[in-house]
Amino acid sequence: MIINQLSVFVENQPGKLAEVLGVLHTHEINIRAMSVADTADFGILRIVVNESEKVQHILRGAGFTVKITPVVGIILSDQPGSLFEHVSKLSSAGVNIEYIYAFAANSGDKHARVVLKVDNLTLAERLISGECEATEPYRDDACATPNFYW
Q1: Fewest CB atoms within 10 Å of the CB: 20, 31, 112, 149?
Q2: 62-106 pLDDT, tens per residue?
Q3: Which phi-psi region, left, alpha or beta, contains residue 51 (left: φ > 0; alpha: ψ -120 to 50)?
């Protein structure tokens, strides 16, 4: 399913992540998923929360730079090969995965959650849900990416 992710610009300094988390804590915001990509000077904190537009407003009000990005969220069985199966479907249809993060909740759940940033959200969602199949990349039908890749 397509979900919203917040990308928050955070300086790569001690205490800066705690500032963002403190704002979320103060407003009783529950983080459903989180990832940080960093460089020497800054990081991008990616979070999935309920009510992303409300949280975006709260974080902007606290002085943070925030962007909402649509991503694909999937739940798959927590067993070897499950992620490979989904990534293979996307790959064979020519869908590029820009980044991914995943987590397994606990051993009793038997499911893992995955967040994918892809270049074709609609096609990725249709492929993952089983609504369509794509066996050849770049086909010109409703379940393929346009034929303009070079």
Answers
A1: 149
A2: 999 999 999 999 998 888 899 999 999 999 999 999 999 988 776
A3: left
Q: What is the 3-state secondary structure (H, E, C) of 92-150?
A: HCCCCEEEEEEEECCCCCCEEEEEEEECCHHHHHHHHHCCCCCCCCCCCCCCCCCCCCC
pTM of the model: 0.80
Burial class (CB in 10 A: 0-12, 13-18, 19+), 81: exposed
Neighbour-count burial for 19-34, b at 16+ CB within 10 Å, e otherwise: ebeebbeeeebeeebb
CB-facing half-sphere around the CA of 7: CA atoms within 13 A: 12
Q: What is the CA radius of gyration of the chain?
A: 17
